[in-house]
């Protein structure tokens, strides 16, 4: 089956010139312990890179439920995973609705769950999606294009203090107040609707401060993307609810791409493992200590040198895994 499925495989993502290379695939496959007949969930199926590898290891008799909130990515995944026929079920939804999705499909419990957070290279590099400060396109950044509010709505409608808080909180940007002030000053003249326009406004705030290692707009764009897609809201609750669908011995693997996400994953995993997840001194800690899981990764795993050489975009990946007792 493995060879046949791969031979039949066309990779639709390659045609677009914005191929997404799945991150830490070797580690994901080892940790998930995919096996024939297994039932797995890929909560962020994206372009189906990880899903394809998982599905190859589930045959015969296995099943993969793939979820993504981006309909375009899901269509590409559908084409890529077609050779697996009824072994794969794809759902256009927010993974936060996982309990509903699995209940509707009458699937439970499952052997493993993968969560590969953030955006794909396909989304980032498709100019019409408006994620990149390097393109002169509409400022959009929605993963789910059926959603109403875009990055341009936030930039033009939030108050100066709301913008500053957002850029500080979700972008960890020290110059958030000055950037928010510059945005508000510019939007008084004309609405800010394009990526390059915003990147230019932010860059001008930095200009007096000399050379920057990363593009000056990087953190502001990250903050807007996180806010538009509500990437951090409900993540901890989702991880805990998803955990409830694992069989005993089932595993969950989460890959995150920035410290804000990783902090949430670490906290959720420590709680499930019955460990302290708060910042209080030990004598004041009131964390519940019910041990429901073993942490497989005490510290996050990161990509090895070979992977980084082949795919520099993997550099910020942090992988954590646990097993249900
Ligand atoms: C890093 S990509 C996943 C790539 C995938 N593992 C692959 O190999 O092609 C992350 C994906 O998660 C999706 N996503 C992010 N947040 C989501 C959410 N709350 N619900 C469903 N999908 C989400 C994005 O649309 C994106 O396609």
Low-confidence spans: pLDDT under 50, at least 5 residues? 1-17
What's the helical proportion of residues? Answer: 40-55%
Question: Hey, roughly how much beta strand do the residues contain?
Answer: 5-15%
**Kindly, what is the distance between the CA atoms of the first and last residues, rounded to a whole number of angstroms?**
32 Å
Tell me the Rg in angstroms: 21 Å
Bound molecules: S-adenosylmethionine
Order of helices and strands: HHHEHEHEHEHHHHHHHEHEHE
* Count of alpha/pi helices: 15
Average pLDDT confidence is: 92
Q: Provide the spatial order of strands within the biggest beta sheet.
A: 3-2-1-4-5-7-6
General form:
globular
Biggest β-sheet, characterized?
A: 7 strands, mixed
Broad structural category: alpha/beta
What's the total number of strands? 7
Descriptive overview:
- This protein has 325 residues and is of the alpha/beta class.
- Helices cover 42% and strands 13% of the residues.
- The chain contains 15 helices and seven strands.
- It has a seven-stranded mixed sheet, sandwiched between helices.
- Strand 1, helix 4 and strand 2 form a beta-alpha-beta unit.
- Helix 9 packs across helix 10, helix 9 packs across helix 12 and helix 10 packs across helix 11.
- The longest helix has 14 residues.
- The N terminus is likely disordered.
- The protein binds S-adenosylmethionine.
- The site of S-adenosylmethionine has 21 residues, from helix 4 and strand 2.
